[in-house]
Every structure is written in structure tokens, then in C-alpha cells.
Amino acid sequence: MWLIMKVFLLQILVFQLFGGGIHCQASTSRHTFVVREASYTRLCSTKDILTVNGQFPGPTIYAMKGETIIVDVYNRGKENVTIHWHGVNMPRYPWTDGPEYITQCPIQPGLKFSQKIILSSEEGTLWWHAHSDWTRATVHGAIIVYPKNGTKYPFHKPNAEVLIILGQWWKIDANAIRDEGLASGAIANHSDSLLINGQPGDLLPCSKLDTFKLTVDHGKTYLLRIINAALQEALFFSIAKHKITVVGTDGSYTKPLTLDYITIFPGQTFDVLLEANQRPDHYYMAAIAFSLASTGRNIYDNTTTTAIVQYMGYYTPSSPPFLPHLPAYNDTNASVQVMANLRSLEDAEHPCNVPLSTSTKLIYTVSMNSYPCVNNSCSGTNGTRTAASINNISFHTPTVDILEAYYYNISGVYGDKFPSVPPLVFDFTADYLPLLYQLPSTGTEVRVLEYNSIVEIVFQGTNVAGGSIHSMHLHGHSFYVVGWGFGNFDENRDPLHYNLVDPPHQNTIYVPRNRWVAIRFEASNPGVWFMHCHIEEHSTWGMATVFIVKNGKHPKAQMLPPPSDMPPC
Ligand SMILES: *[C@@H]1O[C@H](CO)[C@@H](O)[C@H](O)[C@H]1NC(C)=O
Ligand SMILES: *[C@@H]1O[C@H](CO)[C@@H](O)[C@H](O)[C@H]1NC(C)=O
Ligand SMILES: *[C@@H]1O[C@H](CO)[C@@H](O)[C@H](O)[C@H]1NC(C)=O
Ligand SMILES: *[C@@H]1O[C@H](CO)[C@@H](O)[C@H](O)[C@H]1NC(C)=O
Ligand SMILES: *[C@@H]1O[C@H](CO)[C@@H](O)[C@H](O)[C@H]1NC(C)=O
Ligand SMILES: *[C@@H]1O[C@H](CO)[C@@H](O)[C@H](O)[C@H]1NC(C)=O
Ligand SMILES: *[C@@H]1O[C@H](CO)[C@@H](O)[C@H](O)[C@H]1NC(C)=O
Ligand SMILES: *[C@@H]1O[C@H](CO)[C@@H](O)[C@H](O)[C@H]1NC(C)=O
Ligand SMILES: *[C@@H]1O[C@H](CO)[C@@H](O)[C@H](O)[C@H]1NC(C)=O
Ligand SMILES: *[C@@H]1O[C@H](CO)[C@@H](O)[C@H](O)[C@H]1NC(C)=O
Ligand SMILES: [Cu+2]
What we know:
Elements: H1 2-21, E1 28-42, E2 45-52, E3 61-64, E4 68-75, E5 83-86, E6 112-118, E7 124-130, E8 140-146, E9 160-169, H2 174-184, E10 193-196, E11 213-216, E12 221-228, E13 234-239, E14 244-249, E15 252-259, E16 261-264, E17 269-275, E18 282-290, E19 305-311, H3 332-335, H4 337-341, E20 360-371, E21 385-390, E22 393-395, H5 402-407, E23 441-443, E24 446-449, E25 453-461, E26 470-474, E27 479-486, E28 505-506, E29 508-511, E30 515-523, E31 527-533, H6 536-540, E32 544-549
Parallel strand pairs: 1-4, 3-8, 9-12, 11-19, 20-25, 22-23, 24-32
Antiparallel strand pairs: 1-2, 4-6, 5-7, 7-8, 9-10, 12-17, 13-16, 13-18, 14-15, 14-17, 18-19, 20-21, 25-30, 26-29, 26-31, 27-28, 27-30, 31-32
EC number: 1.10.3.2
Protein name: Laccase
GO molecular function: copper ion binding; hydroquinone:oxygen oxidoreductase activity
């Protein structure tokens, strides 16, 4: 038994070296992604899911900082699909960024699209996922970016690395769940289980045999690359009797932050160190959803997904393994712990280039909404249709992508009047708000940014329609999270308390209900870039918008030309 485990560990190490090593020779590598159906059994029932290369979760892309990777994406499935490289800034090249009808039309069944992944400053853990309807429920995988040759991790080299991909499983097709929600106007059915590396874990039916196991050697340190690939759920994650130390997030390093648990929002990644320093035994790692669930407990997935941390050696394991203490599902205070304490690494090799002043100030309210239905015939609250908006505009997805409309001067696809401040100013976080505030307008409006403008966005969470939590994700740029706070943002008082020294550098940020969050970035990447809530249902309801960053004067400050194989509309 012991020998088998040793061999297993060796495999992890060899795999890691191989993964990091194969790209040392070439600066461009090539991968093939075949999107196709495959049959998977979870929770005692079998269904066909869309996968990449038949794998769920999908294949990992290993890269080195600054590399360009080509992925030949073949759609051999039955539905339209697009693939997005989440957290990769794609300098000057929005063409293969992926969001459907934003930067491209979908890859239709039978077609192929060769996509470039252009890495620049990112280092750490990123991921890729489908960016068309709710297909990303099963079409997702990791992108691991190693330090460049001659540089190393800014922490003690771990003995091995482990990928932890958190997800959600529905017994029926996630797109059918989406369609039902859109048809009725109600919140779509929650998933049947949360997942760790594609598995529900011991506590769910028919799952024990396949539960993910991480075998550890006492005294060694493991780098866990954790991705929240769940469609809808923010997650608390913890390992029984072990502390974890966050050292990176969203492809940037952070100051070490040692915690009992993390909260990870949809779209975010965390690199954490786990020291195998407890008594040799079996321990659960577990995740549960964080939910406001103000209208009852059945609107979120309340399952506990588990995997096992198993020490090597001779011992009688505790049975069942220890479960970690996780915050209560509705503990808002716990949900902000990571955000409140995370700081960028900020050393000579990893400087923090947070803009000290700004040229473009934007205030964006992120709100839940509802449209009235004839005779209150919809299934949302009070017979309405549920919606969501930014600055009161519920995003309407066009049928021609905005990037091509911009590049080829096709008119009538989008407007450029996205408001820089909320169209109506009121007490956004009041307990009681007039019902008429729930009605949004509908549109496809973008905000045009001058090249190199220095942008600040304050996301203002509101209590319209009861409010919610959000996970705002920006394509094309990482941003510094310079501040956050309770209630309504005060433009005179709150900026005085910004962290302009070592704010974390992220691409996806939690906006708590009735609070605000301020981010800053330099709009130095010409192109068309989507910004949306990574809680997929909120994005579907319209919590999305687009930035167009104009070309600069210098040729190197301009968008590159499109590839010849852009998918047709
Ligand atoms: C990277 O470093 C290794 C070992 O230090 C060396 O063998 C290899 O040639 C280097 N590769 C490149 C592309 O510089
Ligand atoms: C959603 O849940 C309801 C209630 O459990 C059920 O009747 C309905 O069939 C579910 N919808 C789908 C698409 O599975
Ligand atoms: C979880 O939610 C289901 C409804 O979806 C409910 O029946 C069950 O009691 C809940 N379990 C717990 C532990 O709250
Ligand atoms: C969290 O949920 C529990 C049980 O449903 C409830 O008693 C408690 O008041 C809730 N806490 C908050 C902060 O909403
Ligand atoms: C949450 O934090 C606030 C502010 O720090 C505090 O006033 C409140 O008591 C806390 N609530 C809980 C349930 O811990
Ligand atoms: C709405 O309700 C009224 C009164 O019951 C009924 O006459 C009318 O046909 C309904 N309209 C629709 C579109 O169902
Ligand atoms: C539903 O309607 C009732 C009665 O008009 C109102 O008091 C309540 O605030 C409404 N709820 C929501 C979430 O709009
Ligand atoms: C689009 O319009 C701009 C300004 O009117 C012009 O400079 C550009 O050449 C046009 N592009 C195409 C592809 O027609
Ligand atoms: C949102 O837009 C709708 C439609 O134009 C308008 O009726 C409503 O007053 C606006 N609400 C807010 C809060 O701006
Ligand atoms: C697939 O994409 C094409 C091109 O945009 C579009 O015409 C078609 O309606 C899409 N099919 C579905 C089922 O959405
Ligand atoms: Cu949201």
C-alpha cells in the first residue's frame, strides 16, 4: 500500500516537471480542442454533456509567462459554442477572446476556429471556458502559467502541485435549466450537487468510489490551484484541521495570507499553499455555497462537496474523515474575509503599478430588476420576469458581434451611450425602495474609452428587488481593487481610504449586496472587451456591458488585424 502511494506521489512530481518542462523549448505551442458530447454518470444518473476532448473537467493548458499558444477548436457537438481564455489579457488581439456575439460569432457545428491565447504579464492560475449560453457548466479547464525560465515562484518551491476545479452538476442539461428559467421568468432550478474536480464526493449518492483523493507526504508542501468554475455559486472552501495560505489570485501573486477557509466567487482563482503538517490520517476538503437566500433555502445548491486529503504511511484512518468547519451558508461577514485582507505581493520583481490618479471615473450600479408581465403571468416575484442591469441597462445580446461591427463599421448593432453614472441617483442601499425602480431599460450600449485612459469604476451594489451578490469580471484587462465599503459610495470621503500601495490585482471581483467596490486599470489594450457578472444567471438576465478601447497613435498601440478564419454569423 505504502509503495503504491509513493509511486503515485512520484507520478505527481513527474507530471509537474513534464508540464512545466515541455514548453521550455518553444515559445509557441499548439493544442487541439475537440468540442463533443460524452456520456457521464454522476449522482446515480447518466447524461450526455458537452466536453473538450471527451474530458470533464477539460484538459489543462500548461504555459510559461509571456507565451503565445494556439488552440485549434473543432466543434463536433450539436450546438454553437465559443471558447474564452479567462484572465488572459490578449494584448491588441480581442479576435479570439471568445464571448459569443461580443468578439465573435459562434463556432457552428462542423466548423473550426484557430484561437490564439496571448499571455503577457499573467503568472499563476487562469482557466478557459465556453462563453456561449450555459455550456460552460461542463466545458471548462485550467490554464497554468509558470514563471519564465530563470525566474521562480516568490515562495518556497512546493513539493507538488494540485489542481482543484470547483463546479456544479445538474442531473439534466444546464441549457435546458436556463431555457426553462428564461421561459418562465423565474430563477432557474439550482444544481443537484457541487463538484470538486468533477466529483460530488462521499456525502452524495453514488459518488464515494470516485471521490477525488489528494495523497500527501507528511512534511511536504503542496500548491493548490483552485478555480471556481461553478456557473452560479460563490463557494466557501476549507480543509479539515489544516490552514491554507493564499499566495496568488487571478494570475497575480499576493502577500501570503493564512486562513482557515477561503471564499471564492465564480470566475476567481486562488493559488494556495497546503502544508501536510497534521497527524497522518484522512481529512476532507469541502466546499459549500455562500448564499443570501433571503427568500428561502431552496434557491441555491445546499450540498457539501468533498474530496480527501490522504496522508501516506501506516495508520488506521479515522472513519469518516474529519470534516472542516465552514462558515454558515449565509455568513456575509465571512464572505468578505479574503477580500478584506488580500494584498498584492509588491516586491522588486512584482511591482504594483496601481494608477495614483484617474482620467475617467465611472460609477456603475449593479442591480437586480424585473419586467412586468401581462396579468402577472410570469413566474418571477409577484408574477414578474426577473432581470438584472448595470446603470439600469439590461444588456441585450446582438446577433452580429460587436467587435466586427466596430471594425467593419456595421451600424445598428450597438450604441455608444452607456452612461458613466447611474441615470437616477437614489439611496441605492435603502431597506425599502419603490417598486418602480425595479424596471430597467433594455439595450446594447457600450462605453468607448480613449487609448491609455486611466479608468476607475465603482461598482455600487443596490438593494433594488432585494439585491444580490455579484462577481464582476472584465475581459482584456486586469485591475487593481483599490477599495470597498458599506452602503452608498461617497465620492468625497471614500477615495481617501483607498489602498494605493498594494491592492490586489484581479480580473473578477466580489461585489457584496448593498456595498461598493472600486477598481482601477489603464485602458492600454485596444479592442472590444466584455464586462459582466460571472454568476451566469445574472449575466443572462442582462448584468453585462462592453468597453471599446480605441487605438492609440503608434502602430504598436493598435489592434492587430483579424485572423482569416473568424466564424461566420
Ligand atoms: C530553460 O532552462 C533550462 C534549465 O535551466 C534549460 O535547459 C533550457 O534550455 C531553458 N530553456 C529556454 C527556452 O531558455
Ligand atoms: C425544476 O424544478 C421543478 C421543481 O422541482 C421541476 O418540476 C422542474 O421539472 C425542474 N425543471 C427542470 C428543467 O428540470
Ligand atoms: C437543501 O435544500 C433542499 C431543497 O432543495 C431541502 O429539501 C433540504 O432540506 C435542504 N437541506 C439542508 C441541509 O438545508
Ligand atoms: C442565516 O440562516 C439561519 C438559518 O436559516 C438564520 O437563523 C440566520 O438568521 C441567518 N443569518 C443571517 C445573517 O441572515
Ligand atoms: C459582521 O460584521 C459587522 C461589522 O464588522 C458587525 O457589526 C456584525 O456584528 C458582524 N455580524 C456577524 C453576524 O458576525
Ligand atoms: C388578463 O386578464 C384579463 C382579466 O382576467 C383577461 O380578460 C385578459 O384576457 C388577460 N390577458 C391575457 C393576455 O391573458
Ligand atoms: C410584491 O408585491 C407586494 C405587494 O404589492 C409588495 O409589497 C412587495 O414588495 C413585492 N415584492 C417584490 C420583491 O417586488
Ligand atoms: C470605418 O470608419 C472609419 C472612420 O469613418 C474609417 O477610418 C475606417 O477605414 C472604416 N473601416 C472600414 C473597415 O471600413
Ligand atoms: C430605468 O429605466 C426605465 C426605462 O427607461 C425607467 O422607467 C426607470 O425609471 C429607470 N430606473 C432607474 C432606477 O434608473
Ligand atoms: C448559431 O449561430 C448562428 C450564427 O450566429 C446563428 O445564426 C444560429 O441561430 C445559432 N444557432 C442557435 C441554435 O443559436
Ligand atoms: Cu451578479
